[in-house]
Amino acid sequence: MSIVAARIDNRLLHGIVATQWVPEYRPQRLMVIDDEYANDPTKKAGMRMAKPAGLALSIISHETAMANFKAGKYDDHTVFVIARDPQTILDVIECGQTIPELVLGGTVTPPEGTAARQVSRRAYVLESDIPVYQAIGATGCAMSVQYIPADKAESLDALIS
């Protein structure tokens, strides 16, 4: 399998991802790794409606994703991975996958009192996640903050160092 990119986005698969990021990377499969959506048939069905025609979509739990990566289930696909948190992305890498690029898109505003940095108008990085991002970057993965492809990509490394 060839992972073409990964994205961290609190909304996971939505219109901007489907209409702007999918054409940017041209994957054969979108892989949403999220326990909540994987285990809720209603949320899963709603998310499937955002899938572009002709594209495979997996909405799977963290455990299933890691097992599938280890088993080589997607070896014949190009995959765009979408998750809500950086630890999921690091876990994918630790399963032996190479992720050439990680884009931090939209994240939720953290609760008041939470140690976090606002790295763009629409994205925050929790202080507790900085070591995770650093570990991802240490693998050679290029990390940026960019809501839509037309926005200027900002180096995430520079914003969290």
Automatic annotation (TrEMBL):
Main location group: cytoplasm
Presence of keyword Transcription:
no
An example GO biological process term is:
phosphoenolpyruvate-dependent sugar phosphotransferase system
One family from Pfam that matches here is PTSIIB_sorb
The listed locations are:
Cytoplasm
- The protein's superkingdom reads Bacteria
**InterPro entries in the cross-refs:** PTS_IIB_sorbose-sp, PTS_IIB_sorbose-sp_sf
Q: Name one GO cellular component term.
A: cytoplasm
Q: Which residues form the PTS EIIB type-4 domain?
A: 1-161
Name any one GO molecular function: kinase activity
Sorted UniProt keywords: Cytoplasm, Kinase, Phosphotransferase system, Sugar transport, Transferase, Transport
Protein name from the UniProt record: PTS sugar transporter subunit IIB
Q: Which organism is it from?
A: Enorma phocaeensis
In the record, what lineage is assigned to the organism producing the protein?
Answer: Bacteria, Bacillati, Actinomycetota, Coriobacteriia, Coriobacteriales
